[in-house]
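Weekly structure sync, notes
Attendees: PL (lead), two postdocs, one rotation student
Agenda item 3: pending single-chain targets
PL asked that the sequence for the first pending target be pasted directly into the notes so everyone works from the same version. It is reproduced below exactly as submitted, 206 residues in total.
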Amino acid sequence: MNIRVTHSVLIRDHLLLKDGQKIFESPPVPFSQFADLIYNELRIGYPKFHKMDNLSKLGFIGADILLKNNSLDIKKNPYETGIILSNRNSSLDTDVKYYNMVRTGIASPAVFVYSLPNIVIGEICIRHGIKGENTFFISDRYNISSQVDYINNLFEKGVFNICIGGWVELIGESYEAFLYLAVNNANDNMTQPHTTETIKKLYHNE
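Predicted structure, written out during the meeting:
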């Protein structure tokens, strides 16, 4: 089995990179404004985006850029694509907002629906027609080696042939998203092996 990393996306510090190349950069602004600037600049064109919480927006943008202009026809074989993500603070950013709303006597279902971290995965799946295995892990740090081993194990068991892996973390105005696309038997000569060393280099933008 030859599992290769074909693309990666990194979002942090008002900067968006794809495969190490700068795609978008903004002045220091609140995340919600930064997300809207990316949405408009890159013409994402998905009205439901504006109803999402900030964590979902972050993951959604990352996945949208990751999958843009790739040669994979995911919607043709939706059960062959999986998503494995993780972060540190779960959906705490939205949880706190919802809790504060409840304290004032307003319990908004539109906010409550985002009080689980795997909603990020749900939004990505809906957008791209993905129906394969998906899991969202919570850990104190981005445990790259564990994630790589877990994804490789699922590849070897035939659970999927394509996987979006990575880290999507947001709390207040602190945010970071790193997503990558792993493919079984990718033909592109520019790909890299799906190993802990590869993911570490991409995550640290080395």
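Discussion points:
- The CA atoms of residues 32 and 49 lie 11 Å apart.
- The mean pLDDT is 92.
Action: rotation student to compare against the earlier draft before next sync.
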